[in-house]
Specification:
This protein is an alpha+beta fold. It is built from two helices and ten strands; from the N terminus they run H-H-E-E-E-E-E-E-E-E-E-E. A hairpin with a 2-residue loop joins strand 1 and strand 2. The protein starts with 5 loop residues before the first helix and ends with a strand.
């Protein structure tokens, strides 16, 4: 396991503190019922809905964009390369996430991260509409 140095710990803390208020609105996503045509379809049964954008106080990022990725039951987002660093939380449903070096399962309230240039794919394994709330960190 890699050791975390002081600079990494501070960066992680600042990132978490900046993003936390944005995820405080995640309860909105749990109660919001998206229509079948809202947002932009990126795969069969998978749509991206823009939630909002804000400025970032993290020097490496100029802004943070929040989107909800809405998955119909059983829908699959095929493997894709991440354009930006991202922090994701599950606000509805249950998912299997596949990365190049691992696979894991997530449920409501779980969080994970994606790194720019890395691959990721997701499948909604629940019988309900699943939602990923994603904070996209836009570089400065």
């Amino acid at each position: 396991m890699n050791k975390m140095n002081r600079r990494s710990a501070i960066t992680l803390g600042v990132t978490a503190a900046t993003i936390a208020p944005l995820f405080a609105t995640a309860t909105f996503a749990k109660t919001k019922k998206y229509g079948p045509k809202e947002g932009k379809e990126i795969a069969p049964g998978v749509r991206v809905v823009e939630v909002g954008t804000g400025n970032s106080d993290i020097p490496a990022y100029k802004s943070i964009s929040i989107v909800d990725v809405v998955f119909q039951p059983g829908a699959h987002a095929p493997q894709s390369v991440m354009d930006n660093d991202m922090v994701c939380t599950i606000t509805s449903g249950a998912f299997t996430i596949k990365k190049a070096d691992k696979e894991f399962k997530l449920k409501v309230g779980d969080m994970y991260t994606c790194s720019k240039g890395k691959t990721d794919e997701a499948t909604n394994t629940s019988k309900e509409v699943g939602i990923h709330r994603i904070a996209i960190l836009v570089p400065a």
